[in-house]
Amino acid sequence: EVAAEERGQMKFVLVPKEAEGLFQFFRIDKAALPQLLVIDLHPEIGQRQFKFGDQDPNTKQWNTDKAKDVSAALVRDFLASYKAGKLQRYLRSEPVPEKQEGPVLKIVGSMFENLIRSDKDVLINFYGDFSWCKHCEVYAPEWEKVGEFFTDVPRFVVGKMDFQANDIEDAKKRGIAPTGFPDVYLFKSTDPNTPVRFDASRYNDERGLNAVSKFVKDHATVPLVKDPAKAAAERAEYGGAKKEKKEKKEKKEKKKDKKKDKAEQEL
User: Fold this and answer.
1) Are the CB atoms for 12 and 53 separated by under 8 Å?
2) Which regions in the chain score pLDDT beneath 50?
3) pTM for the structure as a whole
4) I need a surface site. Which of 31, 64, 82, 112 has the fewest CB within 10 A?
């Protein structure tokens, strides 16, 4: 019904769960079906998705249960909001790690923006899943060496991010457009919106610790001076989901204590 009304303006596609290629191309999680999405392919920005559902402001996770019982009226309202620019874009993110281990920070979509704007230089290895990206699997131990090399440098973060499992808003427009994996970018503290891509051809076609460390020295904006204590304190800021839960619990307990003190004072 709605498809007929929108003929010539939008294409309506019903995708069966067997269409593996389409799910991979549009980065749709089969475990969360059914879903209703508006997908547009912007020439400058890249793929954008707008999901029919509600996002939890705290967990950043989407609830798409309403797509199980959709009506023509709801679809019309959804499309009207999309055309009016009122919909929030859907950006995928893996869960925040329960615990950060090792010298390389595991970065997910929901923490990316805050991290690159934290007054630090952030060096990220964008990789693909090891199940199909064998180059990524082979490179992983070398990237650990890079993380270890800079682990005692304050205001300098070495991280890794599964690029196909986490979305970065307007990535293509911002110059984050890996043509293959693994791909390394440096986000400078002074200009996080203009990342510098590691070009192996400038370093004798090498991608190891020696080449990457030279790349960092060429472009870093923070002092590359070791201070183990200060660096360790900074790494503790990224304690993972357990740390976030602990902080929320502490805040909740403080609020209870304040209410209790106020009640006692009134008595």
Assistant:
1) no
2) 242-246
3) 0.74
4) 31
